[in-house]
Amino acid sequence: MAFVLGIPVNMAMVWLVAMVAFLVIEALVPGLVSLWFAIGALAAVLAAALNAPIWLQLVWFFVVSVAALWFTRPLVKRYVNARVQPTNADAVIGRECLVIEDIDNIRAIGRVKAGGMEWTARSEKDEIKFAAGDVVTAVAIEGVKLIVK
Length: 149
Hints:
This protein is an alpha+beta fold. It has helices spanning 11-28, 35-49, 54-80, and strands at 2-4, 7-9, 96-104, 109-114, 117-123, 135-142, 145-148.
């Protein structure tokens, strides 16, 4: 049993409260953010129940939390938000575009015509400029701007 300011503290209960708090946070926040810490707190509860010293409980908490994160996060990322819906705008990426207004990132100007639509455009690299009439390739969309090279 540990003592804080001379008051006996049952560490198993402290870890149990922490675990419940992590689970409540997990339930309230979209996405997975604290599930791994709840699993680590469960390991610390078991260590405390076996009368392990506090330093060992902390080690178990951190080691199990990191291990749970390490082994499950890639799996969770693959299945939780795996349904990305491509938009019509995504069809522009990889296509050739006609520069209709000089593109200069420093002056924050530039427009291209791609797929029958006009886009505000910026160069992939600040030091590269394009003149009206050049043909460029769309590489990304950032907000409402088409990034070209």
